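re: ur question from yesterday

yeah so i grabbed the chain u mentioned. its 163 aa long if i counted rite. heres the sequnce exactly as i have it in my notes:
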Amino acid sequence: MAGITPLPQTAVHPYIQPLSFLLGTWRGHGDGSFPTISPFKYTEEIQFSHSPNKPVIAYSSKTWKLSSGEPMHSESGYWRPKPDGSIEVAIAQSTGLLELQKGTFDAEQRRVSLKSALVGNATKVKEVSRSFQVMDGELSYAIEMATHLTSLQTHLKAILKKI
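ran it thru and got these structure tokens back, copy pasting raw so excuse formatting
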């Protein structure tokens, strides 16, 4: 069309570049368990997106029961990586639970490790840790949780592929 100039290609912010391997939509299956609940299987979709030239990654996750497709859990938040390899993550869950996670990332190993600095609006959950790794085109993660009745232990683990 005459007179229309295409928008310039926007760059990934330098703080985001080391984690650009996460950007996109991932889908797969996971397993959940904890001493206070019955084990379960789920389907999950995680999206990591980036507003051009901003030093933050938007994060969202939705899960469904593997057997029926019924919606289960959702959460969203923001990942703020720093040039020194540290990262801050804020997550709001559909249950009302809020997490402020702090941790580190290793771009070469494609790994992110997080531990809760704050768990808000929680009567039972006392601590949450999350670890993510991309290897051979798959995003794997494990989430550990501690409550007022239990020590820190695996609650969720999943393997997802980029779609």
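noticed a couple things. The radius of gyration is 17 Å. also Residues 6 and 28 are 36 Å apart (CA to CA).
anyway ttyl
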